[in-house]
Amino acid sequence: xxxxxxxxxxxxxxxxxxxxxxxxxxxxxxxxxxxxxxxxxxxxxxxxxxxxxxxxxxxxxxxxxxxxxxxxxxxxxxxxxxxxxxxxxxxxxxxxxxxxxxxxxxxxxxxxxxxxxxx
Length: 119
Known about the structure:
The chain is mostly helical. The chain has helices spanning 2-19, 22-32, 35-52, 55-70, 76-81, 84-96, 100-113. It has seven helices and no strands. The protein is globular and about 35 Å long. The termini are far apart.
């Protein structure tokens, strides 16, 4: 279910933020074998980074995204789909998170730099 994927993704992301080891994330996402679960992971990661409101956390997540592209877990389609909801919420988020637009730009630049997102 979506709730189970959300809970598993949350634990995976929290572990990554603590240990900065993308190998575990790669393995966890491979186990999902479900595009929807990976899209949800991207979405949760972006919202988590925006919620923290700090560039170092966002850059840490961007490093993870680069590793996921390199390992074939992320595709342009999955990456872009993971941004649908965060982009829709951006105006509202920017009220409480002054750097929301700058942080979102950092996330999107990751895809562009990885040459996986169409500019």
